[in-house]
From TrEMBL:
Annotated organism of origin: Micromonospora avicenniae
Keyword NADP part of the UniProt annotation: yes
PANTHER family for the chain: QUINONE OXIDOREDUCTASE
UniProt entry keywords in alphabetical sequence: NADP
Pfam families noted in UniProt: ADH_N, ADH_zinc_N_2
CDD domains: MDR_like_2
An example molecular function term from Gene Ontology annotations: oxidoreductase activity
Keyword NADP: yes
InterPro entries: ADH-like_N, ER, GroES-like_sf, NAD(P)-bd_dom_sf, Zinc-ADH_QOR/CCCR
Domain named Enoyl reductase (ER): residues: 18-315
Lineage: Bacteria, Bacillati, Actinomycetota, Actinomycetes, Micromonosporales
Protein name: NADPH:quinone reductase
Length: 317
């Protein structure tokens, strides 16, 4: 561990693209809140699959970074700096939120600057809140695009992960019927969140027909496992499917929704406050798959890369 000076902070970073072993913890310059932003002393932050893609250099073409780069897009903590024009929070408030999406990083550190946030609900502990905001924004963005509301029958491909578990709960709270695909070991888990579980892979159409004879209205593909040709067959037209994970989505007439980079959809930051309300009503939680220290971040990235985490992976500074 590095000694700290008043102008420095402990931060996870990488100075070259590569495998999880390029992640190091060192002293880095502190960031400061710009206009419309705030800074938190981080209590917990999230690991998203995108952090592993950024680290591996897969996003270099469309999100150019200046190295060294601090990964992480969501965090929870205590406000210690308030930027110009911010009137809704004060130093000492407990919040959770998202860093500037365009930078694709900054959260896995001792201090993080947030660009969108909401008060941390008491119903979520620090680990849960630290990994929540990015998935809430993504799930809200896609569920809005699919117009998921009371009575909608939604199928989520890849329902046991960070986005899937979030989308199940938000959709159920809207009054939708949610079918979630997951491996069998996760069926009870996603059922506990409100989904009707089934297995992904061959025979999906038959299994879905048996579960909802009236059919599925819309589909969220959060797996990106190449199943879009089958998912498109579940609905009347491909516009009723949105993928967040399949780079070949356009081939099947499916919209690929992204929160940043060229061609991104407008982010749905208002979903964060809406999820706070649900959490306070006991209708929204964040299943945490594992908590690691910053020093163990390589193991956290490797768990994310396994693509079988059950819920959210979180880092503690
Ligand atoms: N475009 C965007 O705005 C955006 C935002 C966030 C995330 N994403 C992308 O969305 C994807 C999901 O993100 P996440 O954070 O939810 O990931 P995650 O937490 O790593 O999700 C892993 C889940 O995927 C499931 N899974 C693995 N193989 C599967 C398959 N063949 N079919 C169906 N499900 C499968 C696993 O369930 P089992 O263990 O039960 O198999 C596991 O629970 C990632 O590719 C991520 O990069 C995109």
């Amino acid at each position: 561990m590095c000694p700290l000076t008043s102008a420095g902070m402990r931060a996870l970073h990488f100075s070259e693209y590569g495998p999880a072993s390029v992640l190091k913890v060192a002293e880095m310059p502190e960031p400061h809140a710009g206009p419309g932003q705030l800074r938190v002393t981080v209590r917990a932050s999230g690991v998203n699959p995108a952090d592993t893609y950024v680290r591996a250099g897969r996003f270099q073409e469309w999100i150019p970074l200046r190295l060294p780069h601090v990964p992480g897009v969501d965090a929870a903590g205590v406000v210690d700096e308030v930027g110009e024009g911010v009137t809704t929070v004060r130093v000492g408030d407990e919040v959770f939120g998202i860093t500037d999406y365009a930078q694709m990083g900054g959260a896995n550190a001792e201090y993080a600057v947030l660009a969108a946030w909401a008060p941390k609900p008491a119903a979520l502990n620090w680990e849960q809140a630290g990994g929540a905001a990015g998935n809430i924004e993504t799930a809200t963005r896609v569920l809005d695009r699919l117009d998921v509301q009371h009575g909608t029958v939604l199928l989520i491909e890849g329902a046991a992960g960070g986005v899937g578990t979030t989308a199940i709960q938000i959709a159920v709270a809207r009054g939708a019927v949610v079918i979630g695909t997951a491996s069998e070991r996760n069926h009870e888990f996603i059922a506990s969140l409100g989904a009707i579980p089934t297995t992904y892979g061959p025979g999906l159409a038959e299994r879905v027909k048996a579960l909802v004879p009236g059919g599925v209205h819309v589909v969220l593909d959060s797996a990106g496992s190449g199943s879009l040709p089958h998912l498109v067959g579940l609905v009347p037209s491909p516009e009723r499917v949105v993928s967040i994970a399949d780079a070949n989505a356009a081939t099947y007439g499916v919209h690929l929704s992204r929160g940043s980079g060229p061609g991104a959809d407008a982010p749905s930051f208002e979903g964060i406050a809406a999820a706070v309300e649900l959490a306070e009503q006991g209708r929204f939680t964040v299943p945490v798959a594992a908590v690691f220290s910053l020093d163990e971040a390589a193991a956290a990235h490797e768990l994310s890369e396994s693509r079988h985490a059950r819920g959210k992976i979180v880092l503690k500074p």
